Amino acid sequence: MFAVTHDHLIMVMLTSKFCANSLAPIGKVDQLIINQLAVLKFIDYWVFLPHRYLKRKVIVKIAQSDDEILACFCVMKELRPNIEEKTFLADIRLMKSEGYVLCYLEIEGEVVSVGGFRICINLAAEGKALYVYDLITAEKQRSKGHGETLLNGIIAYAKNENCKCVHLDSNVVRHKAHKFYLKNGFDIVAHHFLCKLL
């Protein structure tokens, strides 16, 4: 049985492709979760049930406590190899004070994917936009749909916050990531330029 509390937003995914408007009863547990969608207003946790996860508890959670933040370090370091564990918590706390949201996908107690984003007003987006700074799945957990599940959770968050679009950058050498984003509804619309000062 999946535990549901007032600060959970539950969404049922009938296929690996996220479709918020195509919910249908597929079982007693799933129907119970669907029936509670209308009264859940705040996103702190998401539980997703893609077809391949119907017998497993899959939680996309926003990292709030020190332990939750630190649990994301090892996976995040695969994307950001220069970060250090001793400063990670303080860095994330500072970033959170500026609007950064750290989230992660947890399966049976193990953090398998980590994401970080922020919502801001963007002239190019003509309104609110969500910008994804970080998105990574642990190497040993890749090609299992975890990244897609986490990305869909972030997109659901953006929709709930009435954002007009989701932006992200991906390193020019991450060709598999580029294919992943294109597959999941993103377009290549700009080049990102960097001028190092130090």
Walk me through the structure:
There is one protein chain. A 7-stranded mixed β-sheet has the order 1-2-3-4-5-6-7, sandwiched between helices. It is globular and about 40 Å long. By secondary structure, it is an alpha/beta fold. The protein has 6 helices and 7 strands.
Radius of gyration of CA atoms, rounded to a whole number:
17 Å
> What is the H/E string?
EHEEHHHEEEHEH
Spans where pLDDT lies below 50 across 5 or more residues: 1-55
Shape: globular
Q: CA-to-CA gap between the ends?
A: 53 Å
- Percent strand equals 15-25%
Helix content: 25-40%
Topology summary:
Blueprint: E1 8-11, H1 28-35, E2 45-48, E3 58-62, H2 66-71, H3 73-79, H4 85-97, E4 101-107, E5 110-122, E6 127-137, H5 146-160, E7 165-168, H6 175-183
Parallel strand pairs: 1-2, 6-7
Antiparallel strand pairs: 2-3, 3-4, 4-5, 5-6
Any descriptors?
alpha/beta; about 30% helix; globular; disordered N terminus; about 200 residues
State the gist of this model.
The protein is α/β, with parallel strands linked by helices. About 30% of the residues lie in helices and about 25% in strands.
